[in-house]
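Lesson 9: reading folded outputs for more than one chain in a single document. The general rule is that every protein is listed as its sequence immediately followed by its structure tokens, and records are never interleaved. Here is the first one.
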Amino acid sequence: MDDKTFNFTKAKLDGLPLPVKDRETYFDKTVKELQLRITIKGTKSFVLTRRVNNKIVRVTLGRYPAMTIDQARTEARKQLGLMVTGIDPNKAKKAERAKGTTLGQCLEDYLSIRASLAENTKKGYRSMVNNHLSDWKNKPLKDIDRDMVAIRHKKIIEGGEAIAANNVMRCLRALFNFAHGQYEDEHGKPFFTDNPVTRISHTRAWAPETRRKTILRASELPLWIQAVEALRASDENHIDASPSTVADYLEFCLFSGLRRDDVLSLKWEQIELDTALMHPVIHKKQSEVITLPLSDYLVVILKKRAQIRVNEYVFAGRGGQGRFDEPKRQIAKVVKISGIQFSSHDLRRTFISVAESLDISTYAIKRLCTHSLGGDVTAGYIQMDVERLRAPMQKITDYFLKAMGKTDTADVVNLLKQG
């Protein structure tokens, strides 16, 4: 027997020399699978090593002298009892932790692992859990059953938030689906095999949802632009106050057709005024950068913004700090002045409706609106050169300018006979 194998005693373990490099391993004669590892810095740890299912498994039991030799031998025998039956103690310990995973822990794991999720999506998930499931955050997933889910869904609906109720349950369903694939027992089988949100589908309890279809009609555009101009005129400070920036933002949303967050996130480095191009980052598409043409009116807006540039964002925040946020208070002013109810997304929807009414090709509309072409087989053979999109973009701009009374160079189409 070599000098590294002996009966562990306090005197012998205390007298072990530091290794010359890395670490040294010593073996106990009493429990042969028990080892003591000592690092070059003098840290001593009890380790158990044994083959489990034809694979070497190493289990760290504890540090010496905090764990005594007798305690180490007792724990080693306990873990060996599992190992001889084919159970990996490391997996068993991990499984025990996973078994008690709470809703809050699952949410954080989900948001951490699904790194491609947009920040707004992550914020939305947290908001739904905090606002409607806060009393469940510390509750283990295994304790959330179908009855609880059905009752909570009904309660949110009865509180007058039908759409929120459905969204909260979609969020919860996504978390349980994630848990099914993420948390396993020591044999690699999922802990959470049932998704309690299926009760809502089984009982057909989902609240009815009507997709919003609001657009600005042709006859409303003059009133809308007048209200936007009135908002802009009320702004005497382009940096510290927001009305003028909001007015530019609203026009940019309408004339570009971009999503709200993609407009708010637009940076000057993504703008080419000399070539009339922009390269927005489409956050909904896993941060895809695309190139789009700028119509003449969009160039005018951007040149005006450039004169009062204060930071990297086209639509800078108050005091020049960061990017602008959703301007709900100022939009409410435009609504009050014009008498027209609308949201930022309604402006995008109006852009798309106008494009369709002007007989612009479906592929051009999809590209201008940053929609995916991936599901269309024919689209795979079409290379949408940016210059081919310039004429359709300008055509849409001309329509808006004519409808608003700013020019007479475009024919106004009666959208859905609603003008």
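And here is the second record, again sequence then tokens.
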Amino acid sequence: MSSVSLALFIFGVCYLVIITERIHKTIVALFGAAVMIGLGVLSQDEAFYSHEFGVDYNVVFLLIGMMVIVNIVRETGLFEVLAIWAAQRADAKPFRLLVLLSLLTAGLSAMLDNVTTILLMAPVTLSITKRLELNPIAFLVTEVLASNIGGTATLVGDPPNIMIASKAELGYLDFLEVLAPVVMIIMAVFIVSIWGLFGRNMTVAPHLRSAVLALSSRDAVPDRPFLHRCLWLLGIINVGFCLHSLIHLEPATIALLGASAFMLLGHARRKPEDGEELSYLTDVEWKTIFFFIGLFILVGGLVKVGVIRYLADQLVVATQGNLGGATMAVLWGSALLSAAVDNIPYVAAMNPLIVDLARSLHPEISDYAELVHQPDILPLWWALALGACLGGNGTLIGASANVVMVDIARKAGYRISFWQFFKFGFPVMIGSTLISSLYLWFLFLR
């Protein structure tokens, strides 16, 4: 069996088992990753140390750092305060609350990133839906879809955008100017669609509404000075995320520095017994972390044998010379493939392909910035960004935020299956990609 066939077989079997949910996805991903290495599709060095094929430790340590931070912030009562604020602003009416939380999630995702936002918003959602005796699954799924949409709008909202910005030499304002308008359109359509899905069926008993509206956020904060210190530290960390390219620190490093500072803050406050401070680490969702490690290696095998690059080549080469066809092929191909595999290695394969295409179409241009900003190349960058980011809504494993949300729900006692997520997420992905198609045509192709 060739290395290509072997990699496809291993990935396909693992994917099918994850879909059936007969075995926990973390076990499947780690087993598949071990088989990839054991059968020589990837070497151990490539799996663990290669930037191109191996584990993306930026994502792994960003997740670990943010999970530690959220575990400590939970003790301040901040999530309860936000939950009470959201419920009272929505007059404790379920659909208004759903819309408010979705818009808040999308906005935070644009400023931070979608994984961090879900880590912050999921506890808020679980808290307020518990008080109103509502099933949180509709809220959590809606919020994670909104987070992936909102994260598309800015350079820092989703890791693929950071990668594209670096390769295409595009700035924060470029992303905001081109992508923010279509994201706002998509969010408006999304809100209308969730009214049709959930709006008519959500009700809350009058006595629960009255009880929530009578709550005081002050009562939810056990230690106000500790809350204030945590808020200052959260603010510093978020500024670090926004300025990471200027201060030459990766988001993972900022998250780990922040997590360490938060643990010191928590230790100084509680004066725990020996070893008790490590509860901040034991509460990390390690099953989620190891799932991502396995998934990175599985997808890295596909990248190593050239499957991802081959698919990317076919998307662009099939329509070479036709700007409209190439743009739509990149957009829709990126959306569908990013729903099936992690979008980070996919974008890593597509970036050099678009640069190569630019060189073949404009051999007379030697200046790199001028080359990648040509009018017939720029739409391809935006199509790649929209497709890769919005495609994450297609399946449960299409985006890191989806996996994090599902594991938070499971820990709280609510199971969200692959097909349950697919039923809501895939239509949203198709609809948002269709809107993006019309937007790109209007902006660049008409």
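What the second record shows: The radius of gyration is 22 Å.
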